[in-house]
Write a structure and sequence with these properties.
Layout (H helix, E strand, L loop, with lengths): L14 H8 L3 E6 L2 E14 L27 E6 L2 E8 L6 E12 L1 H8 L12 H8 L15 E4 L7 E4 L16 E4 L11
The chain binds a DNA duplex through β3 and α3.
DNA sequence: CGGGTGATAGACT
DNA sequence: GTCTATCACCCGG
């Protein structure tokens, strides 16, 4: 299977639209040992300045959040203890919006994903969480500031998506009103969507 | 050196 | 399904 990166204009849509548009597309990671591809099935939007759950709330700008003030389509990775989480930057320059990739569905490079995750795990546990999918696909902090339209790590046109479900976001703790914003999007009945904990 | 940053694996019910 | 112990790095001061 040959994959082609989506043009940068794709990322210029309003961030809530972009979060939904990403569903069904492929994340592709070209590695020396082979190609890894997975379908995006769950995303969450974060709208920097006015969203208490975002790292960039109130335009908080540090070296860590700096990339979110950059061009739409940039890769924002951050480390959560043992896990790396990956985001797609949205919004215009100086508007720190981002979309967290929460779950993907393995498409190609299954053997390598299995090795990355541990051979004893069931397939549905490979990528059904934001920390899991980065490990399965070999995405590391080295990609901080990379752009999703460039190889070896890019997003490619998918083959469509099923019914999209909208709901509140996960794991954002006490973030005031922002907790209730329906900014989580996922494909209905997809077994790789991460489970919601109330 | 202290604060910021939630998800994971596995045990239990 | 539900619970919870455990997990590490980056940054600013």
């Amino acid at each position: 299977m040959i994959y082609t990166p989506i043009d940068t204009s794709f990322y210029k849509a309003p961030v809530l639209e972009l979060a939904q548009n990403l569903l069904g597309h492929y994340i592709v990671h070209e590695q020396p040992d082979g190609i890894l591809a997975a379908r995006i099935v769950e995303t969450e939007a974060y709208r920097g300045p006015e969203d208490q759950a975002a790292h960039s709330f109130g335009n908080r700008r540090t070296k860590r959040t700096d990339i979110m003030f950059g061009a739409a389509g940039s890769v924002y990775t951050y480390r959560m203890h043992t896990h790396t989480l990956v985001n797609v930057v949205g919004g215009p320059i100086d508007t720190p919006h981002a979309i967290l990739i929460r779950a993907v569905e393995p498409i190609e490079g299954l053997e390598q994903m299995r090795e990355n995750r541990g051979v004893q795990l069931k397939m549905h546990d490979w990528t059904n969480g934001p920390g899991k999918l980065t490990k399965a696909m070999g995405i590391t902090m080295d990609y901080y500031g990379h752009h999703w339209s460039k190889k070896p790590l890019f997003i490619a046109e998918g083959a469509g998506v099923g019914k999209i479900v909208v709901g509140p976001r996960v794991g954002i703790g006490n973030s005031g009103e922002a907790v209730h914003y329906p900014w989580r999007f996922y494909e209905k009945d997809n077994p790789f969507v991460s489970k919601y904990r109330a």
